[in-house]
Fold these 3 entries.
Entry 1:
Amino acid sequence: MENKIQLGTRVIMKKGHPCGANEWEVIRVGADIKIKCCNCGRVVMLPRIEFNKKMKKVIEE
């Protein structure tokens, strides 16, 4: 499965954020991926391998 994650990509994670949202925006791509909650603005950085495991799907816009 080839994953085309770019800046600005919106993704849905398997586990929802405590604020109630499960939609995130990618704000940094590299060995680590930084994502920002689209509801409350919380920023989380995950290693790419962990991000790929926890991502449910990419939102097509």
Entry 2:
Amino acid sequence: METKDFIRTENYNLGLKPTGARKVVNEYSNMLNKKVSFQGKESTWSYIIFLKVRGLAQYLISKKEKLDFVKPEYEIERIDSYDIRQKILNISYVDWKKLGFSKGTLHYMKQNAKSDKPFTLNANVLERVNKWEALVSSQSKNV
């Protein structure tokens, strides 16, 4: 979300602009389509919610005697883990240049890695960070 996705109302409340609302809806939709292990198989969150609501309805009309509130664990995969931050901080500008990236890209990545704020990396950059690790390990074996 960005500042431009919000609007301040005449009562000084914050509201969402259409662009912000789209972002929220898209993120929620993505979450509902994620798969988790539930009852021994992979299911989407939307299907699990459907099953839970159906179970609640059956309990309320006395078709079921028990109500199961067990939920699957939701795992968030973060790109900005401690390991990735350390890799970025350890990359030299010379090695980064060998991988085909500019000094500026690494500079901003190092700034993000030093901060406590979450950050993302696009797939291309993440792939190069991992290639750097392979490059360094192969160089250390050759020495």
Entry 3:
Amino acid sequence: MDTKGRMAIPARYRDALMSEFSGSLVATISITDTCLFIYPRPEWEEMEVKIARMSTFNKDTRRLQHLLIGNARDLDLDGSGRVLIPQELRDYAKLDKKVTLVGQSHRLELWDTESWNSNRKAWLDEVASGLEIPEDIQSLSL
């Protein structure tokens, strides 16, 4: 990431994002990790509808709606295949020059590289020490 907050999207993602979504993306915060979620616009619009339809009578649900929808920012790939990550999102995810973009099927995650490496190591250590596998994952055949 450069000093202005522009990040080059790797070609393997960029080509698909341009051809399928015209480079139109949305970034928001993760509420469980110190990273950003980056969605193709159509994926985000589906997610936003689901979040917005949740009951506003529950204080915690309202707070999550405020955080996820309220922090969502439009991103557009420029002619050089870069996106500008807004300062407030960079601050939240503690993003600096070295960042890691992680593909997650329908979205990308943007991490500070040091944070990603630290979390990744902790997750691998947890797996090695006997991670409890959730029921919904146990039904999958990998």
